[in-house]
Write a structure and sequence with these properties.
alpha+beta; endopeptidase fold (from Nostoc punctiforme); 20% helix; protease; deubiquitinase activity; PPPDE_dom; PPPDE domain-containing protein
Amino acid sequence: MRLFPLSSSSSLSSSSDKEQSNEGSNCAMLYLNVYDLSPVNNYLYWVGLGIFHSGIEVHGMEYGFGAHEYSSSGVFEVEPKSCPGFIFRRSISLGSTNMSRSEVRSLMEHISAKYHGDTYHLIAKNCNHFTDEVCLRLTGKPIPGWVNRLARVGSFCNCLLPESIQITAVRHLPDHPAYSDDDDDDD
């Protein structure tokens, strides 16, 4: 697994059997790879709910977003259908993109600036929000609604959720903010 942004551009020579080309164009198929986060999905899936992780597969790589405690990117790339820690459920065709492999990687590096690992939130900013944004940018269409339905239900029932995952309108400030006499407003 590699995190974005990459320190040096690496050339990836792997290709996917699903990748298609149209007479030399950069047209590539886009897939949403959906993973189970819990065995309860075996029951919830049939009523249109579940706790899912998702990644976008394009040009033979899969891109996802995950949490960590640092203020650096939480966007990563893995081999398709092999995201560590999750159980692969299914792959959904989302259409195609005319972006080349390098254009897609450039887009991922750009998007990674707003998807830091320490900003991950189960309800408000999760891996499915990331894949939805990527899909919209590459195809103009969203991911299927059922993939992130539980987070949407959670956002409507915010008062019933444990305090640790409730959506707040304002981010909490650190316990000990650092104040300075300088009037530099570089932020």
